[in-house]
Amino acid sequence: MIYFRTVKSFYSKDFRLGILGGGQLGRMLIQEAVNLDIRVAVLDPSPDAPCSKIAHEFICGDFMDFQTVIEFGKKVDVLTIEIEHVNVDALDELVSLGKKVYPEPSFLRMVQDKGLQKEFFEKNHIATASFFLVQTREDLLKLNSPTPFIQKLRRGGYDGKGVQAIRSAESLQKESFDAPSVIEEMINFEKEIAVIIARNVSGEVKTFPLVEMEFNAEANLVEFLFSPANVSDVIEKEAIRLAHLIVEKTKFIGLLAVEMFVTKNGEVLVNEMAPRPHNSGHHTIEACPTSQYAQHLRAILNLPLGDTALLLPSVMINLLGEKGFSGPVVYSGLAEALATPGVFIHLYGKSDTRPFRKMGHVTITDINPSLAHSKARQIARLIKVVS
């Protein structure tokens, strides 16, 4: 099969892959791109972004500014993202100019608006928590909706921000967001799981094994991730079916993380989507023959998708800034952690920490899943991110 009929060779000296966003996801994407001799240009508003030190070209600029994105996009051959909050109007314009943009702007437009996401699920019979949409707090108060429920800002939420549980009439009055929101049934779930799925330009689709996530209740961020997920074959097949249905309906190109709930009665409900490498796929760097970052590159360059088998049971730990510490980062316990077999540490190049900031992650692999889990708990107690 012949690839790259419309794109110059990715390893040629004048080929450029562009990434909107210079955070840790972009950094790990560059680390995979180096293996294929792909030259990468990055646009990010922070001069100290994690990608700034390793990108072939780093441009400090606002990826929400129309003209800045247009000028950046004109200089690259393929444009992708590591954060979905970018200027989609500019991406539409670049596509009209013949640029290759993945994921496509229409998908990004839907993902940027949680209300549009939920309407897509409903229209396409993709199981999700029941919901309705409101424009203002006043609209919500008029509806007199019974509590508890989940309120999510339609736009701008990220890493647990813009999502809150409304548990009483008092919190509804005082704490609810006064902005366009999704009001969602509070699901009595047993587990939170995720499927990472990729589709290339030719339509080839592959999924990674299902993962199970354990969240930090205070920060609403993933604290531990377990692969394989401890679920039945029936639940795993349903989760994968739903992920396939999403990419089939949208003709998605790239890597997509689909986060889901497993209810107490065994129902699988889609929660949200992220059209990029994702926190729920970090472990694939060590745990799978093809990492999520390599898979994303393969998908957007129309290369054959890689092997996604799980080589060893694994646990991923997010290294979050400790509460009460802000300033130049200090890591304690790294040497002791690295003395443990099967421990792999990834630091993101962020010079300053703050409470619950994602500073790195650790993957633990072991042939024995129980031993991997116990090692992970020990490592989590050992490594501290302070200042």
CATH homology-level superfamily of the largest domain: ATP-grasp fold, B domain
Overall geometric form: globular
Label the CATH architecture of the largest domain: 2-Layer Sandwich
Beta-strand content bin: 25-35%
Structural account:
This protein is of the alpha+beta class and 387 residues long. It has three domains: 17-101, Rossmann fold; 130-185, ATP-grasp fold, A domain (Dna Ligase, domain 1, 2-Layer Sandwich); 189-386, D-amino Acid Aminotransferase, Chain A, domain 1. The chain is 29% helix and 29% strand. The protein has twelve helices and 22 strands. The strands form five sheets. Strands 10, 11, 12, 13, 14, 15, 16, 19 and 21 form a nine-stranded antiparallel beta sheet that branches. α2 packs parallel to α3. The protein is globular.
Features:
five-stranded parallel beta sheet, alpha+beta, 12 helices, D-amino Acid Aminotransferase, Chain A, domain 1, 3 domains, nine-stranded antiparallel beta sheet, Dna Ligase, domain 1, 387 residues, 22 strands, Rossmann fold, disordered N terminus
Summarize the helices and strands and which ones pair or pack.
Blueprint: E1 17-20, H1 24-35, E2 40-44, E3 57-60, H2 66-74, E4 78-81, H3 88-96, E5 100-101, H4 105-111, H5 114-123, E6 131-134, H6 137-143, E7 149-153, E8 163-166, H7 169-175, E9 181-185, E10 189-199, E11 205-207, E12 211-216, E13 221-227, H8 233-250, E14 254-263, E15 268-274, H9 284-287, H10 292-300, E16 314-320, E17 327-328, E18 330-332, H11 334-338, E19 343-347, E20 352-353, E21 358-365, H12 369-382, E22 384-386
Parallel strand pairs: 1-2, 1-4, 2-3, 4-5
Antiparallel strand pairs: 6-9, 7-8, 7-9, 10-11, 10-12, 10-14, 12-13, 13-16, 14-15, 16-21, 17-20, 18-22, 19-21
Helix pairs in contact: 1-10, 2-3, 3-4
